[in-house]
Each structure stands twice: as C-alpha cells, then as structure tokens.
Design goal:
328 residues; 14 strands; 17% strand
Length: 328
C-alpha cells in the first residue's frame, strides 16, 4: 500500500517537467552567435527543441505502455470481481451488491457459509477493492498521458516553427554567398576516440550514387539521406575540415579530409558548427541538415572523394561498409 500512497506525487512532478518544456521560450536571448553561453540563432533553437521533443516523446511512449498494462490489469481485476460475485450468489449469499447487516455503527464483515458457521469477509469484497484500485490507477495514467500528449503537440509545433526559421536563415546566407560562421548547439559534441559512424542517426535512404536525372549535371556523385531540417550531421571519421562553402549546387557544405587522404563532403546543410582548419573526431557534430543549393527537399548529400581532384568521387555505401558502417 505504500507505493499506492506515493503514486499521486507523480502527477505534480510530471506537471513540473511539462511546464518546463511548454513554457521554455521558443527564442533565446543573450550570447552572440557561436559565443559562450549558447546561440541565439534558429539552429540552436532547433537543437534545443529536438531534445525537448525527444524527452516528451520518451515520456509519452512510456506512459502509453504503462496505461495499456494498467488497462489489462483493471480488466483482469474486474473479471475476478465478477466471478467472486457469481460465486457468492451460488453459495446463497444474496445478489451481488446487496447491503450487509450491521451491528450498531460497525459494518459486519462476516457472512455465513452454507453450513451456518461464520466465515471471513467475502472474496467479492476484496476483489471489488482490488478492481477499484486497478481502475483508478488506469484512469490516472490516462490523465497523465493526456497532459503529455498536449505537451508533445506544443513542442512539435514549436520545432516546426524553428525549422522554418532555420531554413530562412540558411537561404539568406546562400543568397548572400557568405556563411554565417560556426554555431554552437548548446552541448559538447558527441565525439568518439576512434572508429567510424554514420553521418546521421535516423534516416531514410533516397538518391544513390550514379543515378541520373535532371537535378545533376551528369550523375549523382553521392548518397542522399532524407532527414528533417536541423538534424545533427556528424563527421563519419576523424579528420580536418578543409573547406566550408556557402553557395552553388551544394548549398552550405563542409568537407573533411581523413588521415588516409580520402575526403567526405556533407552538403545542402542549413548550418555549420565548424570552421576551416578545425580537427574533428568521429561522430562530432559538424552541421545541421537542410535543403540549400540544388535540393528538392530536406536531406543530407554525403559524398566521398579519394582526393582533392574533381571526378574522384566513389560510391559512399561500399566505402562506409569497408569502415564498418552499414547503410540500410
């Protein structure tokens, strides 16, 4: 019973968390772009809202699973209660729900068995209490989920607004032919001391290497990963940033040279987090995906070249496979 008494405290605690997510300003003040204390641009707002949306989504999914389990528990308890009621009627205890005799102010908690001897309180009384408690827990979980669903909608709406603002900033930079400079995304880069990683986390594979079409002068020179605007883009391996460009067919792009001389290019970005000459680790954030340049929608164009010379692009999928990264 101790856990039952503590359970209501989850509601105010949950509401405090949700107030933080919903009330957090959609714009951030203070601190110049890329300076200490964060960034006031749309890119940093997108990242903060990504984190908020992920946290709310996790809580919502956990609450949904819990509600499903509690609903099943309540249904089982109701069936047990119904069986106990039927058993009492069969034993001559009267219809379910009939009033019990009382002695003064105290309710008699005993019934008579068939042979006339007194027996403990009916199973129906215990099962009825269990059923009510189970139903109460399920209803409380449903109310918490309704609050979470509202917070989820609010955060996702703000995320979409921030993505639109980020796209507008990126397009303005490309039109001016000048990148805005590296942006800090509000937390340390998730680097790895060794190894290789995929350029983005969750993605959908779209245009592949060598495909033809009206969007490319000759053939497609990389592998496209369809992701929403503002998705963190990671350096696939350790290396040095040799180029940050802003304009042309690739839009905003970052190029990294790796120790073996191969180069990886990350194009159609909306923002960058690195500058030329910067050394990066595998998995370190180097930008945010977008739709700048010759692009028909939000995605990352990932390209691999065997050197600095034009025409040295190779298929990124087998190249990544040789480094232990499977593209699916």
């Amino acid at each position: 019973m101790g856990s039952t008494r503590r359970r209501p405290l989850l509601v105010p605690a949950l509401l405090c968390v949700l107030v933080f997510f919903v009330a957090r300003p959609s714009t951030a003040g203070g601190g110049a772009r890329g300076g200490p204390g964060g960034d006031s641009g749309a890119g940093a707002r997108v990242m903060r809202l990504y984190e908020d949306a992920s946290a709310v989504e996790r809580q919502y999914e956990e609450g949904r699973r819990q509600a499903v389990a509690l609903r099943a528990e309540a249904d089982r308890a109701a069936r047990t209660r119904a069986r106990a009621g039927q058993g009492r009627v069969a034993a001559g205890g009267g219809p379910a729900g009939a009033a019990r005799p009382t002695r003064g102010r105290r309710e008699v908690s005993r019934t008579e068995s068939r042979d006339g001897t007194e027996a403990p309180a009916s199973a129906r009384g215990d099962s009825g209490l269990a059923a009510e408690e189970a139903r109460s827990r399920w209803r409380a979980a449903e109310r918490r989920n309704a609050v979470l669903a509202g917070a989820r909608r609010t955060v996702l709406a703000r995320l979409e607004e921030a993505r639109s603002a980020l796209e507008a900033e990126a397009e303005a930079s490309v039109a001016a032919g000048s990148c805005r400079g590296a942006v800090r995304l509000g937390r340390p880069a998730a680097g790895h001391r060794a190894g290789w990683v995929a350029p983005v986390g969750t993605y959908r594979v779209s245009a592949g290497f060598g495909e033809g079409g009206g969007h490319w002068a000759h053939r497609h020179t990389g592998q496209d990963f369809a992701v929403p605007v503002g998705t963190p883009v990671r350096a696939v391996g350790a290396g040095r940033v040799v180029r940050v460009s802003c304009g042309g067919a690739f839009g905003i792009a970052v190029e990294v040279e790796h120790p073996d001389g191969d180069r990886t290019r990350y194009a159609h970005l909306a923002d960058v987090t690195v500058e030329r000459g910067r050394r990066v680790a595998a998995g370190e954030w180097i930008g945010q995906s977008g739709t700048t340049g010759n692009s028909t929608g939000p995605h990352l164009h990932f390209e691999v070249r065997t050197g600095a010379r034009p025409g040295s692009a190779v298929d990124p999928v087998p190249w990544l496979a040789r480094h232990g990264i499977a593209v699916r």
